[in-house]
Amino acid sequence: MLFTSIVALVSFVSLVAFVLRFLRRNSIRNIRGPHVSSRLLGFEYDIGRQDEAGGLETKWAREYGPTWRVTGSFGSDVLMTADPKALQHIYHKSAYNYAKQTAQNHMGYIMSGPNIVWAQGQVHQRHRKLMNPAFSTAQLRSFLPLFQSVTYKVVDKWKSDLSSKKDMDLFVNQWLSRAALDIIGAAAFDYDYKALDDADESALAKAYHGILKDINFRLPEVEILFRAAWDYLPFPILKLFAYTPTKTFNRVRYVRNLYNAYGRKILREKSADVDAEKRSHGKDILSILIRANDSSDEKTKLTEDEILAQMYTLTLAGHETTASTVSFLLYELAKHPEYQDRMRREVMEARGRVAARGDAGFTAEDLDGMTLCLNAIKETLRLHPVVTHLPRVATKDDVIPLAFPIATASGEAIHEVPVAKGQVIDTSMLVYNRLPQVWGADADTWNPDRFSRLDDHKQTYVGVFANLILAFPRLTTIAYLNLYRTAAGTRACLGWRFSLIEMQVFVAEFVGAFQFSLPDGAADEIQCAPAGNIMVPIVRGKPDLGTALRLRVSLVN
Ligand code: HEM
């Protein structure tokens, strides 16, 4: 009742603010686009209710071209785009002119406080400058032995379980998530989450499991409106919403309080002068961050709350993302046994060279030399981007260029879209990653060999890794390939190289030791479901199991 009253009040204030804003100017009215089922709830309701993430947006792009207009919450007009030039413009060329949308961004603040993913403008620049040194290539490569030792733990456990049976069915994503959590704990703050030892005993590991899904999956209508209204409210009011009495917010508060208790203790230990020797040599991300902070001037320093927020954010941003991506990759290998065999031969040949050298494990160069494995990672980031779409808001009037012209409602072909200050633009990495114009006629299918024929330097640069990840500079998304590249630029995923090395280790060790196939019924059971702006694997019809992707695992002969 209390919550409903808050929502009613917030919705009223927001509606007034929205109408005033709407009456001012609208420069995208002539752009064509689909109808949505509710003008009040907007397109987020429709795309959040579909079975498979991205199906609807891909259909829209095929009908209207890679840029279209769609109704957002409270009947607002949102520009949606997957156009490479538009993404490049928004994420690289004019990044600070496109701010994060409060309705979506503020949850990050409620979850972990003033962190780098939430920060904007100059505050973001300050966070990024202090955090960058901890993510240099040399620094991240030094984590390779850690990635390997955690991965061997899973490999040894599975081998031991398989010593008495031919095969077993596992929720592989849950194992990967626990392994990735142990890795980020050790790499980021030299802390052992003990998630692999016994997840039931580790309160933090248990609390984290599936949290990104739980706080975004199929939200009730009233909560969708509540969050949409945040766009129209000032920060001091937004801060109060941390105390919202609903299941979602209770969960967020529980995890944050639990985390704060551990985080403050770790931070105190790291910052204390008692172990100055250890502190000056600590190789974990937090130690590097504290050293960079100590030597920066007062104005640019991170506060204790900001450092704490980064720690929590790195944990959240850095484990389920990687675990889900590798799970989707193993799922694709189960469906493509011929590619799995080729990858395994590649891993075995590399192992032969490692043994001939007398080394114990792969070096970073060995992993980089495994082209088939690398292509499988790129292709999975392309077809199953964990972050499917991100909204941005124009902070001033601008003109967004297009690589692929679109026809307006009056039939005119346009090569750019003028946008007014305040315009919301939803950028779809998922649709970009499936554009036949960029990836070829087979863009909807998983085919890692495409990366042997594609020259990503000829593509419009959108993302770091393979031009894939908005978030991962050139290898993709626009972000990983072009995709990781898209949210690349100023706000590229800071952990993309960390995640890449981690994925290379997981893939080489798992494929070298195990065969993956689909258990009976799994083809119908596995669902890549939308949860807010991320994609999560769940068991169809059983979302309460949390994120879950079941595969059959057997030993390689
Ligand atoms: C497959 C794995 C991953 C994916 C798909 C991914 C995706 C993304 C995306 C799309 C963004 C941009 C978000 C936005 O602009 O709103 C981002 C930012 C970020 N990611 Fe990742 N990420 C991954 C792994 C990691 C890992 C392992 C870490 C940490 C070790 C990490 C740390 C961060 C941080 C700190 C940011 C914020 C950067 C900034 O705003 O300056 N990510 N990531």
UniProtKB/TrEMBL annotation:
Pathway annotation from the record: Secondary metabolite biosynthesis
Classification via Pfam families: p450
Residues where heme binds: 493
GO molecular function terms attached to this record: heme binding; iron ion binding; monooxygenase activity; oxidoreductase activity, acting on paired donors, with incorporation or reduction of molecular oxygen
Keywords: Heme, Iron, Membrane, Metal-binding, Monooxygenase, Oxidoreductase, Transmembrane, Transmembrane helix
UniProt cofactor(s): heme
Membrane-spanning intervals of the chain: 6-23
SUPFAM superfamilies xref list: Cytochrome P450
Family membership: Belongs to the cytochrome P450 family.
Protein name (Swiss-Prot/TrEMBL): Cytochrome P450
Organism for this UniProt entry: Trametes coccinea (strain BRFM310) (Pycnoporus coccineus)
